[in-house]
Amino acid sequence: MSEIIPSFRIRCFTCILTIQPDVTSGSSAFSEFHAHLYRFSRRSTVPLPTAVDDTGAKASYKNGILEVRIPKSQKQVGRQIDVDFH
């Protein structure tokens, strides 16, 4: 049986980070079955404390640790709404 190499699908929205593991392995039916189970069983969605700039995002995987770095957005998200008093 071949070695299973983890990979990840990472999506970044304004204030949400979604990480879904994927598995690349040999072409045997047994490996494909386990890759299918793994792919759909461990999706994580993480709310971020502030808006981020996804164009500067970077991710690395080393020694079993996935590290995702995303810079804070310099743009102001949202706007102030003035109240009219009658």
How would you describe this structure to a colleague?
By secondary structure, the protein is an alpha+beta fold. The model has no long low-confidence stretch (mean pLDDT 76). The strands form 2 sheets. A 3-stranded antiparallel sheet has the order 1-2-3. Strands 4-5 form a two-stranded antiparallel ribbon. It has one domain (5-69). Strand 4 (58-62) and strand 5 form a beta hairpin. It has 1 helix and 5 strands, in the order E-E-H-E-E-E. The longest helix is centred in the middle third of the chain and has 13 residues, at 29-41. The chain has one helix at 29-41, and strands spanning 5-12, 16-24, 44-47, 58-62, 65-69. It is elongated, with a radius of gyration of 19 Å.
Features:
single chain; 1 helix; 15% helix; 86 residues; alpha+beta; 36% strand; two-stranded antiparallel sheet; three-stranded antiparallel β-sheet
Kindly give the count of domains.
1
What is the CA-CA span between the terminal residues? 75 Å
Summarize model confidence as the mean pLDDT.
76
Order of helices and strands: EEHEEE
Task: Give the class from helix and strand content and strand pairing.
Answer: alpha+beta
> How many helices in DSSP terms?
1
**Share of helix, binned:** 10-25%
User: How many strands in all?
Assistant: 5
Which oligomeric state applies? single chain
* Residue runs with pLDDT of under 50 for 5 or more positions: none
Q: Largest sheet at a glance?
A: 3 strands, antiparallel
Strand order of the largest sheet: 1-2-3
Overall radius of gyration = 19 Å
Q: What is the molecular shape?
A: elongated
Strand content: 35-45%
